[in-house]
Design brief:
kinase; alpha+beta; 5-stranded mixed β-sheet; 354 residues; Heat Shock Protein 90; 9 strands; two-stranded antiparallel sheet; 3 domains; phosphoprotein; kinase activity
Length: 354
């Protein structure tokens, strides 16, 4: 039966011990030379007539004492370094000690920051895999059932056509999710490339509204405002589409797209975000979030917002979120229920002109 090597016998431990020994030897040598050489000079200068044998014996005694002092002092100087290495190997190095010098405190902070970043990256990777398993599995299972029904059951022509439409819808949903995950991963690793051209923002919003109108089954979708700006229309269309799709998903009665002097606003009367935008707009974050009473993994819920924010930054702007007070931009609902506070995303763009 094989046994794990003790920690002190592992390659990392041996390299650490060698590094400490080398550094301590260097400190010892420096202290030895600083103490021994002046003694040699002073002895030869003050006692030039001392016999060589006596002088050599005296130098040996002085050298031994200097080496011993250097060894003890080097150990004292490196004690905090050795202690930090032992704590790092145990994984418990976050608590400082009263006698830690500033350099050791800085190292502890650097190690803690590195560990936190590694933990965040590992969590994102885990959430990415969870998204693949969960969100891709659902449309694949649905497509499999629909395909089996289409190929094995004697369905009338009208039902066969309906099943085919459902298969197409599930395939479109699957491809959109894969594209969104791929874009989020790419935008996380590199900058968004944009080709700026003068663009009619109202026409861009009208196109988004027309394309997404079939999804507005429970709500109304309207467009207001006029303006022009130098943007990448294809990339900006992607950002506005993401915001509008989210708004349609959670709105109660109405979603409005608006061109303003700041940029583009997407407003709805939904429940709003359950956490700060900076927390949710993180790709592949393992922390779950609840929106409109339904729980999602932030690995899925945050992808669209992350992509929108990166696109806004690529245009020299930012993405803002706030809860706007009730006002005239949205029409009053048909029911006598009180008007809710509005959810508003603002995709800021530089130099929007009427």
């Amino acid at each position: 039966m094989s046994h794990a090597a003790p920690a002190s016998h592992t390659p990392a431990a041996r390299r650490g011990a060698l590094g400490r020994s080398t550094l301590r030897a260097q400190f010892t040598l420096v202290i030895f030379m600083l103490a021994f050489l002046p003694n040699v000079v002073l002895t030869i200068t003050a006692r030039p007539s001392v016999p060589p044998g006596t002088l050599l014996a005296w130098m040996l005694v002085v050298g031994t004492l200097c080496a011993l002092v250097g060894y003890v002092l080097s150990g004292t100087l490196l004690r905090s370094v050795s202690r930090l290495q032992s704590e790092v190997e145990r994984g418990d190095f976050t608590q400082p000690h009263p006698d830690d010098p500033n350099e050791i405190l800085a190292l502890r902070g650097a190690f803690s920051g590195l560990l936190a970043r590694l933990g965040t990256e590992q969590g994102r990777r885990n959430a990415f895999m969870a998204t693949l398993v969960h969100d891709l599995k659902t449309p694949l299972i649905a497509t499999g059932h629909l395909t089996r029904a289409l190929t094995t059951l004697p369905l009338p022509e009208e039902e066969r056509r309906a099943v085919g439409d459902q298969i197409q819808a599930e395939t479109t949903r699957l491809l959109a999710l894969v594209q969104q995950m791929a874009d989020a991963h790419r935008f996380e690793q590199e900058d968004v490339t944009v080709q700026l051209v003068p663009t009619n923002l109202r026409a861009l919003l009208d196109g988004v509204a027309t394309r997404l109108a079939p999804q507005a089954t429970r709500t109304t979708l309207s467009v207001e405002g006029y303006g022009h700006a130098s943007v990448d229309p294809t990339v900006l269309d992607r950002a506005v589409t993401n915001l509008t799709v989210n708004a349609l998903r959670y709105a109660h009665t109405h979603v409005q797209l608006n061109v303003t002097a700041r940029g583009i606003e997407v407003t709805d009367d939904g429940p709003g975000l359950p956490a700060p935008l900076d927390t949710l707009a993180q790709p592949f974050n393992a922390q779950p979030t609840t929106i409109a009473g339904q729980q999602y993994t932030a690995g899925t819920a945050g992808l669209g917002l992350f992509i929108v924010r990166r696109i806004a930054e690529a245009h020299g702007g930012t993405l803002h979120y706030d809860r706007a007070p009730p006002g005239p931009p949205l029409p009053a609902p048909a029911s006598p229920a009180p008007t809710p506070v509005l959810t508003r995303f603002t995709l800021e763009l530089p130099e929007v002109t009427p």
